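If you are new to this repository, start here. Below is one unmodified record pulled from the training split, so you can see the exact layout before writing a loader.
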Amino acid sequence: MHTPVATYVYASDPISQAGVISQLRQRPEIRVVDAEHLGEAVVAVVVADALTDEVLRVLRALQRGSIPRTVLVARVIDDVTLVAAAEVGVGGLLRRGDATPDTLVRALVRVAAGEGEVPPDLLGRLLGQVGRLQRQCFAPRAGVHGPVPAGNRGAQTGCLRTRHRRDRGAAVLQPAHREEHPARRHHQTAAAEPFACRGLRGA
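And here is the target side for that same chain:
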């Protein structure tokens, strides 16, 4: 028997939060935790209308705190939202219109396991954009053979950087990790823990 996934719920309005908590508490795959037990959560679900600056702040606070994996449920999810969510380490995206109890639980379980969840239409479009960008970056230039001339290296480097940012979104929104100095990481974690508990409404 699988252990229920400890899940923290945050919503931009109390009605949405109460509704999501009520649905998840009926599911044996999920164990809802409140702000007092935030450290026990394996994954957090953030419910909002759109990916605003305030929602980004919440997602970053969760990432810096004790919850490295997050799922965003929003009314508006488009290509821009997908890339911005990837930048803050979101592991799953669901449109509110598609977020039934079954689809939400599936997303939470997958993200908790280190996988990802993205609307199929967005993933298909983004993969197509990455493919086109890759062909533009590496297509042979007429009359150019061998090493890239010095004059073209800057353009190719910029193209590669752009492709890297696109790939981050196409990589099924795996959580982002960066190397930091141990002392700085300790300082950020200590500062973020109480901030996340004070600034977020819990289950």
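Two things worth knowing about this chain: Residues 121-167 form one domain. Confidence is low (pLDDT under 50) at residues 142-146, 148-157, 170-202.
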